């Protein structure tokens, strides 16, 4: 079931850390300790969702969050999906595909005409999931919603 995160509290932060455990582990060395990292992430998430052109979604199963992503409207009708991640214990069960399909339907309902995402060339699982959801590889440079070129990656697009 799709859930949009609209409030940030201690419980949301704990659940996000569980959901994004692999990504958080990669970032941990950038902070003096885990408390500093949690505080920084909480501030980022709060600021992120306060912007009406930015949303955070999670897919739930068995009363827990199993995958999530962020969506950013970079220009009217053009959205960008980022930070798509499924918890390791819930992979290969279709949850990522459900999440992407639910989010694209939601975005379509609010006027999205185009949805982009950038995927690493070697991330075959993500390429397959996005392709199964109708995304097509483009020949455009992989520039994210922040205007940054992401070398070694591929820009995928869903035209609605």
UniProtKB/TrEMBL annotation:
It comes from the Bacteria. It holds the Pfam family Acetyltransf_1. It comes from Roseburia intestinalis L1-82. This is Acetyltransferase, GNAT family. InterPro entries: Acyl_CoA_acyltransferase, GNAT_dom. The keyword Transcription regulation does not apply. One of its GO terms (molecular function) is acyltransferase activity, transferring groups other than amino-acyl groups. The keyword Transferase applies. Keywords: Transferase. Residues 11-160 form the N-acetyltransferase domain.
